[in-house]
Design brief:
Length: 276
């Protein structure tokens, strides 16, 4: 599929067929699509959870085209989870995914490098968590100069409690039973109390990190999103007064077919913030 963008072409199929570069550390092996140009400036895409396309999706083809046009380096990679090319296949925690993102950045970006993080859904939250915790620790190297967060997966634990309430389980009974089974998008899911500890911790940190986050941040969320309520992004905007939060009638959670618009909004924002 070749998509016209102004006087340029974005060949999504050709992009998706690129051979991966493997980023490894110990038993971790992450597949990445990497384009190197200016090695001190990187745009890094972080996909959402349970994403079938992962690093190969149309949004990353468009982001790669933007990076190429600006002379920046680009990478999109497969987080560890239950499918895709990355290994091991598992349902990773936020902390584990943040470790994956850290490995990619530490491997590709020099210490004096600058990074634009572009995340979707769970990948948007992972991007925020990585950037915000580094800012909290006042880490000077590998500076995140902007975050683009599309349909971010805010309130992961709170949304989990809403799901299990549909099968008559609340937090107290979940703790007592030790595990809970429920349907998510028609598929059976089972979670133990210990499984969710990482998610609980990130929910507790979310407001604190948002209140102190000063990195230029663009949040794009559709009013038609049936996966992550757009009101959560509005709440984030109340906490992070520096963020540009845009609630749009376009698209849905995936924004499929709206990739060109997303990247156009990204470019306008980055230019407004003097990042590019």
């Amino acid at each position: 599929m070749v998509l016209q963008k102004g006087d340029r072409l974005v060949n999504v199929q050709e992009y998706a067929q690129r051979e991966p570069e493997w980023i490894t550390s110990g038993d971790t092996r992450l597949a990445a699509t990497v384009d190197r140009r200016d090695l001190e400036h990187w745009m890094i895409g972080v996909h959402g959870g349970h994403s079938q396309s992962k690093r190969k999706g149309a949004r990353w083809a468009h982001l790669c085209e933007l990076a190429e046009r600006l002379g920046w380096s680009f990478a999109a990679f497969d987080l560890r989870d239950e499918d895709g090319d990355s290994e091991p296949h598992l349902d990773a925690t936020i902390t584990q995914s943040r470790v994956d993102l850290d490995l990619v950045i530490q491997t590709l970006v020099p210490e004096d490098g600058k990074v634009v993080l572009w995340g979707h859904s769970r990948g948007a939250f992972v991007s925020f968590a990585w950037a915000a915790t580094r800012q909290f620790r006042k880490v000077a190297v590998r500076k995140v100069v902007a975050c683009i967060l599309v349909a971010p997966a805010w309130g992961n634990y709170a949304r989990f409690l809403t799901r299990i309430a549909e099968v008559g389980v609340n937090e107290a009974s979940f703790r007592e039973m030790g595990e809970v089974s429920y349907l998510r998008r028609g598929k059976p899911q089972t979670r133990t109390w210990d499984d969710m500890e990482d998610t609980r911790q990130w929910d507790r940190l979310e407001s604190l990190l948002a209140t102190s986050f000063t990195t230029p941040t663009l949040v794009i969320h559709s009013r038609n999103d049936e996966v992550i309520p757009y009101e959560l992004s509005e709440k984030f905007g109340d906490l992070d007064i520096w963020a540009d939060v845009r609630i749009t009638p376009r698209g849905d959670h995936q924004f499929k077919g709206h990739e060109e618009w997303l990247i156009s909004e990204t470019e306008v924002f980055l230019r407004h913030e003097n990042v590019i």
